[in-house]
Amino acid sequence: MQFNAGGFGGPRQMFDATCSECQKTCQVPFKPKAERPVYCSDCFKKHKPQ
Fold first, then answer.
1. Which pTM was predicted?
2. Are the C-beta atoms of residues 44 and 26 closer than 8 Å to each other?
3. Which helix (H) or strand (E) holds 16?
4. Which residues pair with 18 in a beta bridge?
């Protein structure tokens, strides 16, 4: 049995979101939950552990 572990089989469903830090509209590859912050790509880079 073969699995598509990397998600490279086709287009990924994207969801509209608002960045919790800068309030810009962005798209993320997961359904945002109200209790978790969502960051645009620029703010995500600032919060990502080095």
1. 0.68
2. no
3. strand 15-18
4. 25
Please tell me the total number of residues recorded for the chain in this structure: 50
| H/E segment holding residue 41 | helix 41-47
CA distance linking residue 13 with residue 16, whole number of Å: 10
Contact 39, 19 (CB under 8 A): yes
* pLDDT tens digits along 17-29: 999 999 999 999 9
Burial of 44 (0-12, 13-18, 19+ CB in 10 A): middle
Q: Residue 50 contacts by C-beta under 8 Å, 6 or more apart in sequence?
A: none
